[in-house]
Specification:
Helix 1 runs antiparallel to helix 2. The longest helix is centred in the middle third of the chain and has 13 residues. The mean pLDDT is about 95. With about 220 residues, the protein is of the alpha/beta class. The chain has a single domain, classed as Rossmann fold (3-Layer(aba) Sandwich).
Length: about 220
């Protein structure tokens, strides 16, 4: 018996549908994935609250609404291959695994990568592959991608990520000149060198650290 089922249903109803999210596949994924499994036991009772939660190493698991919004903006189909930059707890990767055909997720902090890999394995979130590398350079071995999700705030859009998209591919990324505040952008690759950018409001993510991000 899942004692958190009612909490997940209320989360979807109040936090997601209540704020206008309508993608039925995203809502179903958010109802299914057990967010409490991706936080410490002492925080599990808070797992479905409308807020990010700490996962250690100065990182956090994103607010449920933000995960759902970013997934909706990616416009995923069941056969898509997706790159996630910033695995963190692994929660967003688990949600993505319900929406597409293959997820590649990269995390620079080895302990977080291992923990995420373990939880994703126990929950049988397949196919998801977790790699411990600098995510600002993407993961070219599996490119090009139908979609890329960046779960940390960048000072600028890494050009290398844009060029790991297929034609028509979507990149969702928080970008801003402050480590604390960003604009949520969706960038669509129109052709080899042409990209369209839309802004979807202000957000606050932990910094994207790496070669093409903020310095540590």
């Amino acid at each position: 018996m899942d004692r958190f089922a009612d909490a997940r249903e209320e989360m979807v109803s109040r936090q997601l549908e209540g704020r206008g999210l309508r993608d039925k596949r995203v809502l179903a994924a958010m109802r299914k994935v057990p967010r409490h499994r991706f936080v410490s036991k002492k925080l599990s009772e808070h797992a479905y609250r409308d807020m990010p939660l700490t996962i250690g190493h100065y990182q956090s698991i994103s607010q449920p609404y933000m995960v759902a919004l970013m997934c909706e903006l990616l416009e995923l189909s069941a056969t898509d291959t997706v790159l996630e930059v910033g695995t963190g707890s692994g929660y967003a990767a688990a949600v993505l695994s319900e929406l597409c055909g293959h997820v590649v997720t990269v995390e620079r902090i080895s302990e977080l990568a291992k923990n995420a890999r373990d939880v994703l394995g126990v929950l049988e979130c397949n196919p998801v592959e977790v790699h411990c590398i600098d995510g600002t350079i993407g993961f070219p071995d599996r490119s090009p991608y139908d979609a890329i999700l960046v779960s940390a705030g960048a000072p600028a859009v890494p050009e290398v990520l844009k060029h790991q998209l297929k034609s028509g591919g979507r990149l969702v990324i928080p970008v801003g000149n402050s480590r604390m505040n960003q604009d949520l952008l969706r960038i669509r690759r129109i052709s080899e060198q042409k990209f369209e950018t839309e802004s979807h409001g202000g957000v606050a993510f932990v910094p994207l650290v790496g070669e093409d991000g903020w310095s540590d």
